[in-house]
Amino acid sequence: MRDRSVRRRTTGLSALALAALCVLTGMTMLLGYANKARCTGPEFDESGVSRSDVSARSSRYVCYSDLQYLWNARELDEMGFPYATGGITDEGELYGSVVEYPVLIGVLVWLGSLFVRTDAGFLAASALLLAPFGLLTAWWLGRLSRWRALWWALGPPLVLYSFHNWDLAAVVCSVGAIYAVHRYRATGLRRPALLAAVLLGIGAACKLYPAMFALPLALYVLTGGAAGARDSAYGRGAADARDSGVNRGRFDIGGAFGVLGTALGTFALVNLPFAMIGFEGWAASFRFQLRRSVDLTTNSVWYWGLRPLVAEDRFEALVGVLSPVLVLTSFALACALGMRHWSRGGAFPWVAVSAAMLCGFLLLHKVHSPQFALWLLPFLVLVPVRTGWVIAYLLADAAMGIGFFRWMYLINTDQPFAVYESFAAQAVMIGVWGRAALLVGLFAAFLGASGFRFPGSSPPRAAADREPRPTFAE
User: Which candidate, 299, 287, 289, places its Cα nearest to that of 367?
Assistant: First the structure.
């Protein structure tokens, strides 16, 4: 009986359970699409843009989508091959076939626009392109974390943001990298780690954030992964340590640099053809993001916390320095704490460190777009933090995601919108500061999570053979 229980804990969901999980995910995304589609049509102008005051509708009914907005803003009805023509003006305006996203998102935008003539058609085509990424993410999360993946399948972020932007393409790459490392270990650590690095490089060519996870993955490889841990509950034993060529007295420097080089090389190889076809257009997308100002729409603590304290002419320059410095500091702190854990006998907790780094980025970056919740949600599934953290974050994010658009509606229709007059404004304040406080707490919670092992990642041993468990591990 005990052996059967152990097997259940160390394997993922059955194929039938995974299929059910994907069905639930599909239904949630379908609900999200239905919400976004409320902002389209029923009548369109000659460029295929929805009439009937879409701006007011999108804020009033919380159905705004960057997918629909981009149709008109970037004239996608006339779009050529992405980045091949165009650039950015001195005023920061994009023109030609340039979109403000990394190249693979540009390709998805172009594919979604090929056979449609309206913003409603573009929304539907883009949703069809993105939906498989959401389903595959659910499948991998189910394999890795069993029924905790229901947080992904049924979570409010999937309703609010699945088709708000193109982030699902980057999310699936991040989760796929973790899956590659922790489900395919028969050939040792290096090969799955390099596969994961390729996925992180592809993810960075969708949205840049997956690139940050290459550093903790490299440290995981450097220290021997699970084989580098003294605790047999997480390690693979002496034989596996010899097979990987790593033990606690020997670092795998070549493997670590291989991970970093593979991730960077993959990103470069994906970008190279676009840079060769139209360098000005390709570079314009990066220049656009670098020049983005910190305003009301960025939803960051910098706008709400620092702007009232600093002169307007100094604010942007100050944030331009403080934000990246503090983001990098949070990365260094997360990695240092991970190495401290490894030095005490556990495996370097690269997934927990990656989650903490993401918290630091979301808190301290100058922009916090609503759909960034999709970036963090898989880590709330993968790292077994307490349920209270998950619920609190989802509530704060929903307050922000819904309250912000309702607040914009009140402002644009000259209705009372002050904090003491409007529940929507109060929801925004709860969202901004509640979410910020939770990101600080989650930074610590991820790094302090109890020891965990992904199902199937390593066979358990008898309790008598185990040393005391470290505070957290992979």
Answer: 299
Tokens 């949205």 belong to residue:
207
Burial bucket for residue 114 (CB in 10 Å: 0-12, 13-18, 19+)? exposed
Q: Is the dihedral of CA 407, 410, 414, 419 positive or negative?
A: negative
- Distances in Å between the alpha carbon of 349 and those of 220, 241, 249, 465? 7, 17, 18, 22
Q: Are 399 and 427 in contact (CB under 8 A)?
A: yes
Report the length, in residues, of the chain: 474
Q: Please write down the long-range contacts of 336-342, taking CB distance under 8 Å and 24 or more positions apart.
A: 337/447, 338/216, 338/219, 338/447, 339/219, 339/223, 341/447, 341/470, 341/471, 341/472, 341/473, 342/223, 342/228, 342/229
Q: Can you tell me the distance from the alpha carbon of 148 to that of 320, in angstroms, rounded to the nearest whole number?
A: 38
Average confidence score pLDDT of the chain = 86
Cis peptide preceding 42, ω within 30 of 0? yes
Distances (CA, A) of 228 to 233, 313, 351, 457: 12, 51, 16, 14
CA angle 247, 253, 337 (to 5 degrees): 75
Question: In sequence order, what are the beta bridge partners of 88?
Answer: 94
Q: Is residue 196 a contact partner of residue 225, using CB atoms and an 8 Å limit?
A: no
**pTM of the complete model:** 0.89
The predicted structure's pLDDT at residue 121:
95
What pLDDT, on a 0 to 100 scale, did the predictor assign at position 291?
87
Are 203 and 174 contacting, i.e. CB atoms less than 8 angstroms apart? yes
Measure the CA–CA gap between 162 and 77, rounded to whole angstroms: 23
pLDDT for the residue 452: 60
Residue that is written with structure tokens 């420097």 in the block: 253
Confidence grade of residue 56 (pLDDT, cut at 50, 70, 90): confident
Query: Does 229 or 221 have the greater pLDDT score?
Result: 221
pLDDT at 418 over 90: no
